[in-house]
Amino acid sequence: MKHMTLSRMIRVSAALVASSLASAALAAEANYNCSISPTGSTLVQTTGITAPFSGTLIGNYNATTNPTGTLTRPGLFGGSGNQPIPYTASFVLDGDVNSVPSGTWVASIDLETLQVTIRSLSMNLLGTGAATLPATLNINYQTFRTFAPNSTFFGGFNVPVPVGDANITELRAVQTADVTGALVPQKGNRYTLAVAVPVNVILSADVLGSPVADGSSSPGVLPLSGTVTVNGTSVSLALSVSNQSSETQPITDGVFTDQPIALPTVLPAGNTANLLMSGTVTQVTLNTNLNATLAATGTRQAVPGDLDGDFLVNSSDLGILLTSWGQPGVSDLNADGTTDSADLAIVLTNWTA
Hints:
Type 1 dockerin domain; 2 domains; 14-stranded antiparallel sheet; three-stranded antiparallel sheet
């Protein structure tokens, strides 16, 4: 292949530059890779999860493995053996999740148009680890009797039964579309901003070892407001988040079988009937009230075609590329082993000044 002479390269480059200047409108925009700092970042989320379900209760009696266990029989009189008791119920989880959140996003800042665009936000609202909330079972069963212990359970109304703790193992917010907001200048290089970021909220939780939400996703909005300070190649952000939401999702794999439940006796009181619960969770409703303070920093992204590191793509970078024509090195922007027209196209496409 014939080598291009320097004079011809300059002529060709000048023509390409002229045809590429239309794309120079992004010259003032700078992209910053931002991440939440654990220092100065806190999150409190009041979470309520309700999961209705229905099924049967039966005593844990087994003639072979547990002959002294509890037997259940429907109604007040009669019957024999160990028989299932129909019920309807709901799991209720309610409490505060306190965490140090983590997350990243890209902030595109244009100081000429005074706009900021948030892209690719992904936040782990739990931070490092799972959250534990107290779980209550509100159960409505038909009247039944138990033996070992002997007791009568009158049905027809909800009975709250504490069933221990539930675990929220995943709570994330992932942006679903870019969003742009205004920057309002303050003193110096500081600006205020407010954007409502559309997200999917992803939840995984279990109660009694069975999932009531297993990676279920629901749409939501994450309102971010606060300040951004621009320091050349970096930014610092002080943001607050405040949001309330309610979302119901169907559950397609919520079947559970023979989960142990200790039911306090009513008549007479003072004993415990040891039962096995089976059923199907049909849906889960998540109510949240989120309040967070986020401290974040951002580092400016490199500009494709910027060979001298000044975040501009201009004649200085073009000169470096032409000097290195046909050679490997930093000017080989597409990393194919040589500096050629493909690398020149990258420079010209990203021409900014």
